[in-house]
Amino acid sequence: MSKRIPKHLTRRAFLGGAGALLTLPLLESITPRFAAAQGTPGEPARRMLAYYVPNGIHMPAWTPEAVGQGAAWSLSPILEPLSNVKNKLLLLSGIANEPARPDGAGDHAGGTGGFLTATHVNKTEGADIRSSISVDQIAAQALGTDTRFASLQLGIDGGGSVGNCDSGYSCAYVRNISWAGPQTPLAKTVNPRVVFDRLFAGFDSQVTAAERAKRQRYSKSILDYVLKDAQNLNPKLNTRDKIKLDEYMTGIRELEMRINATEDGPQCIAPDAPPPELGFQEHLTIMADLMVMAFQCDLTRVITFMLGNAGSTRSYNFLGIPDAHHEISHHQNSQTNFDKLQTINTFEVAQLAYLLDAMDRVEEENGSTLLDNSLVFFSSEISDGNRHNHDNLPVILAGSQRGQITTDRHVRYDNDEPIADLFLSMLSSVGVEQDSFGDNSTGQLAGILNT
Amino acid sequence: MKKHAFFVFCIFGLALTSCAQDTSTPSATNTPNNGDQPGDSPGDQPNNQPGDPPDGTPPDLPPGVTPDADPGTATVRRRNRVEYNNTVRDLLGTTSTPADDFPSDNHSYGFDNIADVLSLSPFQIELYDRAAEQLAAEALGAPQGPSTTITLEPEEIGGDIGAPSGDNAWILSQEGRWSTSTVTGRGRHTINIKAFGQQAGNEPVQMAFFLDGNIAQIFNVEATEDNPGSFDLQVDLLDGTHNIGLALLNPLQRSLIFDNITIEGPLGGPLVTQIEAETLTSDRGRANDTGFLLWSNGFLEQEINVPEDGDYILSMKVRGQQGGPDVARADFLVDGEPVAEIEADSYGDLSLVYTVDHTFTAGTHRLGVAFTNDYWDEENGIDRNLFVDWFAFEGPIVETAPDQDSEGRQRIMICDPLQDVEQACGEAIIRNFTSKAWRRPVTDQEVADLYAFIDLAKEEGDDFEQGIRLIIRATLMSPHFLFRVELDPTPTSEQAHPLTDHQLAARISYFLWSSIPDDELRQLADEGRLNNEEVLTAQVERMLNDPRAESLVHNFGGQWLYFNALADVQPDYVIFPDYNEALRKSLQQEAQLFFRDFMFGQRGLDEMLTAQYTYANDLLADHYGLNSNASADFVEVDLEDTTRRGLLTQGSLLTVTSHPTRTSPTRRGKWVLEQLLCSPPPPPPPGVEGLLDNEDGEITGSVRDRLQAHAVGECASCHVEMDPIGFSMEHYDGIGAWRDDDNGFAIDATGQLPTGETFDGVMEMTDILSQDERLVTCATRQMFTFAMGRGAIFHDKDDLQIMEQGLRDNNLRLRALARYVVLSHAFRWRRGDGLETPSTPQEDSE
């Protein structure tokens, strides 16, 4: 076998690009024209971001040995890239997503379909896909009213060209983590150019205000028309058709609201558009930049991001790992596979670190940063890739949601606390008080929010 | 065909831990990969296993004449990405493919056109909106905005690359791109760069101009400081933000100094200057937020600069507040003199736009609007006023109609609103365009509703064509366009009924073309002559001969036989250095050309596995080790006395069923079971997948050896189904090249199937496989699933049997199968879903 010399491996690439590979402008060059992102006194902006990585994590190199606060705990090898923001992390061990356990095989689909819903999804390829509304979408209902986009769903991989996804589970469970309702997975955008256009198109145009207003009137009248069309159609449809049409009408109404919001919403000076062709690393970096910009310009306050689809078979050639990620994740306790997984996981965490570092550089009011005023959730659909277990999940929280969370801690729970309870706490941090969430919540998770 | 029933195990895909126990439950659920869920209702999939008796129903029911039979439900089907692109291609004649930006469509049952899982997110709606606007603009040309000149001064903008040079220029002395962003209108722009070089060496300074991250043009800058140069290029821009950049390509001792960059445009359209009345003053009235109210006779005017002699259009947007015997009147004033008079009607609060032609000479003029017939009856409080929103001039008007020849324009503007009666023309345009787009004749009410957009455009001061643009957008955003809607007379009834001819036409065209019906199909539907066996047979033949049927190769063949997956795999570049983009494309093309013969030609399905020929270019011939006359182009190649034969020896399949670093006999076997025989094995239990490389990276045996050591215990019962098939292909490596050994270990391509047949190599294996009954059953089912956009259900079993028999009666030709699919009861009939409430759907009622 020939000796493997990775083509492009540099320390910088490994550490997540550190801002040097991208062709987007530096974040500083984006100037919020209005201060809405900084929040008005009565209603400070809060944000939620959920970050998904596929195929689980090599837990022995993930979990820090010690629990505690500040100097009491230190970062594990995989978490090392997060050193700049260690004091803004809350690492949780012993959290379980029991409802994500599938019926028979299909842990990747079950774990991903239930990733943000803590719901046991229906095993089907057909009509009756069913999860439930995801935590980010509940947050978006509360946080999304003042921004141009109630939420954004972003990712890296679209979907395969052939085949089925996972053991009799629809691909809908494998490629999406945001669910607007039990039957409505929200597709993600993977093309940075499309994200960019979405965020910044129509901004700063030199057309006159009168011309822009006219365009908006045209758009609105078209949406009114098609909505009326759909309403006329609705009573003539059978039940399944109505579900589809309902998705359509929801989309039209949201678009209508968005057009209205554009009229006087906060605006940013648009940065440079991303180039068309991107490698994986550049793709990740630019998506992270776009996420930060979207928050910074207050275009949205809720984002979900998938670094890969469930059971991703990506080869990490540039890290010297040609094998498919999913295949390695079935590690069979081989040290070779452990090493590879640790390398991949460290790379994944470095991507998170790049995002968190960037968020922490964005200054907001009273010396706080964007990261301080957000809550970022990072995890995977399973814990160990070989066992496919849904307990002891790798969970990072970052940011304190305006001081509501005491960070720089590693907390270990001993009783497989339901992730649904954590989601209740996360919702509470954005002002949504719910008694229950998903299939198995018991109340807010102790030790998360300051009381 | 000889009946072979090997692989009697493990064919129901019951996802149970043991394969063997499935044999005892042949009537259980047969959802692929599924069925272990308690809630699954038994029997919602047909059992098409060999030797499975057709449970009492006569197998030879003529299609379409069994009104009581259950055709199954068909959920409204959103267009998937391919269908969207094809549809706008055939509707508008466009070559753009807006759906490439849409989110991926979810797969179920192996295809991406399954109605029930084609969901729709708000984001997708947004992309539809954007696509509709762009398509309308592309078809008719965008309305021209005013031309502007933007000047970019680098010393004011600054940047990380380069440095200020003097007070008003910027110097680049090293590699790297100076860039900034700016916003432009839509259309052609002239870009000018004022620059010179500090020269050195033999070649002049080279300057690259970047537009949106790409080099748009490279200039040799021979100009020097004494005599700076001016460099022009023309670019077509969309409206929005653009990235503009400059770079010095050959620094060394050289430098590039530039003064500024100007962007002028959009070019070509007439200039419009609009004067907002509220910005003017007069003592005869008062301004408000949107305009100026003249309450007694008086005028508003503004000095204008007319660029050149010519014909111009003057316009004003005004509203009369009526009172007294006459309608409010207004004059257009040029240089203080009235040039035209209008009567300012009033429709409630609406201000209307009035226009008049006028010939100007170049130079400064005064343009104005006068209110001329004030009325004031103090006693009765009757008042007549004139409200002025704006006035404008546009021109010079050049008598060249915009882009008359564009394909989209020809298809849409089927009449001329200026020469024909405008209303009749507008309605004709709507009827023609929207009926095609919605795959059915539009109603009078729908025409009237859409016509309102023309009125709206005019109300806003725009023209007829702008109204048509809005109609195109509304048509493309309508649920009637985005979904294929088939209404039931009684949605809650499960009573079967035939489709309308137009619904049927759409089902056929989306099956065979992944697009809308063409004129002929539509006309047959209009005349009510389509739903007839003879007519349908002729149409299917015609449509299969049409180039649009190529979509079957990509969408049906590519998904069924997996050659589309070449887009997804990444073989390791160290182990397989020969694999590159050229080879990938060649592999894909071979598979497409090969499948085309079976889809459209006279070759039978069984021969797909045993064909003694393929298609190859020289790259592929080399890859396969064939002595052939292949050139850079693909030619048919005889495979007699070679190591290749049939689909299972094609590099596309061999590559997509391999791991990045090695072959996978298991995957290859699973592919055969799943895709060719519709008998998928259950997924492995957690924690047992994968072959282990040794700790020190040394490989200790052939893939076969390692796999056999690994697939023991509970795994063995399923691996024994899959692996022998894959072992027969072990002479082909992870990208389909022939090999005599596997990492130095001898290859053993012999095997025994669970049913006892033995073989040595893929050719003997395919001799057995090509005779397997399930090959025919499975192909039928695959095509039926693709055509219907839903998985097969229990009640489809009679239909499926008829189709399968049709396939057998026609020497296993797929084109005959396509006909039988179209003629089937399920394809031509439908029913409501019988569900009363629009809440969470219940278990399937099929």
Tell me what the structure shows:
The complex is a heterodimer of chains A (about 450) and B (about 850). With about 450 residues, chain A is of the alpha/beta class. Chain A contains eleven helices and twelve strands. Chain A has helices at about 10-15, 105-115, 135-145, 170-175, 190-200, 210-235, 240-265, 280-295, 325-330, 335-360, 420-430, and strands at about 45-55, 70, 90-95, 150-155, 180, 185, 300-305, 315, 320-325, 375-380, 395-400, 410-420. Chain A has an eight-stranded mixed sheet, with helices on both faces. In chain A, helix 3 runs parallel beside helix 11. The longest helix of chain A has 27 residues, at about 335-360. Chain A starts with 10 loop residues before the first helix and ends in a 22-residue tail after the last helix. Mean pLDDT of chain A is about 85; it is low at about 1-40. With about 850 residues, chain B is α+β, with helices and mostly antiparallel strands. Residues about 1-65 and about 840-845 of chain B have low confidence and may be disordered. At the A-B interface, strand 6, helix 5, helix 6, helix 7 and strand 9 of A face helix 2, strand 5, strand 10, helix 6 and helix 7 of B.
